[in-house]
Amino acid sequence: MTAQPFGATAPSAFQELAPDDPHEVAGYRVRARLGAGGMGRVYLAYTPGGRPVALKVVRPELAEDPVFRHRFAQEVASARRIHGLYTAQVVDAGTDATTPWLATTYVPGPSLQQIVDRHGPLPERTLVLLMAGIAEALQAIHAAGVVHRDLKPGNVIVAADGPRVIDFGIARAADASPLTGTGLCIGSPGYMAPEQALALTVTPATDIFALGALTAYLGSGAPPFGARPEPATLYRVVHEEPDLTHLPLGVRDLVRFCLAKNPEDRPGTAWLIEAARHHPATGGELRFCDGWLPRQVSSELHRHSDLPRTAVPPATVLDHAPDPAVADAPTAWALPAPTPTHIEPTPAEGPTTSAARRCTRSALLATGALLIGAATTFGLLNSDDADDASDRNTAAALPPTATTTPPSAPAQSTTVPGYTAVYTNLELVSPDRDHEFDLKAGKVTQDTVTWYLGRQPGAFYIPEDSNAYIAPTGPLTLPDCLRGIDTQPTGILPFTTVTADRSFCVRYPGGQDIAVIHPLTTSDDGPVKVSVTYYRRTA
User: Fold this and answer.
1) Which is the catalytic residue, given 65, 117, 150, 447?
2) Which residues contact 441 (CB under 8 A, 6 or more apart)?
3) 21 annotated active-site
4) SS (H, E, C) 103-143
5) Comparing 62-71, 253-262, 322-331, 513-522, which segment has the lowest mean pLDDT?
6) Model-level pTM?
7) Which among 199, 355, 392, 502 has the fewest CB atoms less than 10 Å away?
8) Quick one: CA torsion of 221, 223, 225, 231, rounded to 10 degrees?
């Protein structure tokens, strides 16, 4: 699926930029509007390296309020500590900018509000899985000392590998502003807990109440205490019982527990996750695999991964070399010849084929986490196998950043009929989160590739349609990998689990090729070093 340039018809998942919208914010290239809220506008933007992010730009009147700016900086600092796989990670922020802004990972999917508006209530199994995923997101948020305060369907984005909670804690900044008394509504009455409505102390239990109200809405199509008028809704939140008559019977008790008037009577996130795990609808396993979403919702996800782009003016061609006497003259007008240690494949379909195919690939976030199959905040959809040619050269010529282990080093895997080792114990270093490990080519890159290992705060991430297996301890053999991926697959690779003494393996998306990975160092922001062995399926 190729992103359509803005012009005649823009994808409905994105809004064309208005004349007063920025085209760049602090180096992030703005390409479309995603929406707007009480605090500002949200845009689809790109990092200098080409990664999509959700960029929230604060409203001018809030930007002029010193109370808001101080609280906004505090809340952004707190949000940076949140590293849940079911949250949209904070990437960057400009709290001191003339107009404050916040960048988070872009999640390629609609909000729960959009899903119910377009497709109606969700089935029981989907509801239970969503409760578990959102509860895990709240665990990470609360562990950082943050209370969301505005958990509602519009603040939960749905990706193929599960939900992502957004805007955690940031609403508190606007709540502290004097401007909230001039008509700016912070929070949503239909999802506010009684203590919020009464202006009492807010605790993590407040978010549990909101989760119950959110689930009731998803399963019935209406908030449990009504939506309007707002004063009447808040009265019912404090004094009346919720209306759960149109909710699937199997989730009514879970929702009712969450909606207890007394915060101390509400369950915790760990209890909710275990209750979801043992729920008949999940069969004892919480997995966001194929079929967890209704088919019409799954089809809609592709609209959000089909990222729009604006027309880019043709590059300026220099008609003369820069003056060498000028110290800061541009030097990129002529590229140096590639080093002899790396042999570039010869394109078989013309010089622009590879680049053209890469432009058809759409980036997802993981989650992240994540991320996020599961946790990444970015994955790749609609990819074709454009990198086969480079694989044929990898064994003969490795990139200059890689080193191989001598033949006398212990083998990482035993031989399996039908598999051939392309490279073994190849050490690669990713300098930052903008670089991924290209497992097929055996290199570190910022380009879009089909089979990759990336990292976000607290975890590695892999393609959404790829599976991994983590060894209990020590090195992994190829037979162990094949057996483990079939019997104990996972898409979650947190640094706390994938340590220096635990290898893991990843299977090629939709195929049988295997990469065995031994993490040598892990880091949220600094360099990360891994040792990789790649086996290609030949039979």
Assistant:
1) 150
2) 387, 390, 391, 394, 449
3) no
4) EEECCCCCEHHHHHHHHCCCCHHHHHHHHHHHHHHHHHHHH
5) 322-331
6) 0.57
7) 199
8) -130
